[in-house]
Fold:
Amino acid sequence: MADYEMVIGLEVHVELDTRSKIFCACPTSFAAEPNTQCCPVCMGLPGSLPVLNRRVVELAVSAGLATNCEIARFSRLDRKHYFYPDLPKAYQISQFDLPLCAHGFVQTGEKRVGITRIHIEEDAGKLVHTPSGETLIDFNRCGVPLIEIVSEPDMRSAREAREYLSALRAILVAAGVSQCRMEEGSMRCDVNISVRFPGQELGVRTEIKNLNSFANVERAIEAEYARQSAVLRAGGTVEQETRRFDPESGQTFPMRRKENADDYRYFPDPDLPPLALSEAWIEARRAALGELPDARRERLESAYGFEAREASALAAAPTLCARFEAAWQRTPSRGALKRLVVSRLARDPEDIAPAAEALASLAEMLAAGTLSAGGAAKALEAHLESGESAQAAVKRLNLAQISGREALLPIAQAVLAENGALAASYRAGRVNALKGLMGAVMAKTHGRAEPRMAEALLRELLGQACPREPD
Ligand code: ADP
Ligand code: MG
Ligand code: ZN
Structure:
């Protein structure tokens, strides 16, 4: 039987990197004591008046420009009404028919995903469910500025959705719009998905709310695709509804039937004037936009010889990228510097801020064989955690490799004496026994022996000629 095709559109909420909230002067810092960052405005008390934060408009326009959107010269803030305990005003200030940005796109390789719109809005508070069954409300997040980025239904697989999300994150981080930390909720994703046979009309979509990691976005898409396909195969129909993804069971469950847009009773907020932006102001924002990931990736490939994949990972980590470029100027050990940065990004793609000095000296120790790749990685983590210099970290954690003939010879001799059976086996022609002997060297030195010299010494002590495995 032919397979259904999936059709995916994403709604991404991103917290803007401002110091104060969208309509008042309350701070936005993450993880403050509950209900310590609120005032009459963000609590929606009667008589309070919102004042739009200029920085919110600047950052939202940066987001629009960085995703190739048209920026509206004239837009407006609207009230979206609904009741929920985390929304003390019983309406959210958002944008409805005149969003700030529209008609953009994000390119990931060959794939282009259309951006329908980007609008600004305020976040709601947070409900905290205690183990004893109470529900507490933390209003600190009320009024934290958000943009919502709505994509066209252009994605056709979980992988394309993930690639779009990581490209979008890289762009927003590079443009200084947001830190986009999914684990802290500063980037959240709703997945809209439907299935159809290729070439058919769009099917009925469901929306899976509030996914908080890339992995869960992919899992939720696969699970919902399987569910909808099974419903249709069995002759049923897909209901338009909101669902949630349960990471434990890996399945989606219904939350509520989809509201129609007019249930929200949108109308222009009478307390806020419309937003009129001049051409000159928008062009100034365009000029202030730094280097975006695509351009940076190309530069990293051509100027430093990174592979495409490495370059896009580094381009998505702007601070690390800047520190890498500074370190490049300081050290001749450039191959080792690249390896150090590439391996860190492979372990953890998050942006980090090591001192350029530390990167340079770790690269030199790596190139000189003073550090193994693993040792350099440990020293880098220690430097990031404590701020100590690379040398201090290497010393404190005793990471320097044991290298050089003099230092390694007695160790190799001791290992051969203690592992007579392996040595005999090697001499009898089992070259694999050498792995066991190297393991013993590493165990004895807690992994710090410089492997090439250690292996050469073992071979030498076991007899010059390298025996061959019997056929
Ligand atoms: P709502 O607020 O009702 O969810 P939005 O316009 O904000 O509406 O978002 C709709 C999202 O759903 C967009 O990302 C859009 O690309 C996507 N979408 C619309 N129709 C379909 C469909 N048939 N299948 C999959 N995604 C769809
Ligand atoms: Mg939606
Ligand atoms: Zn406030």
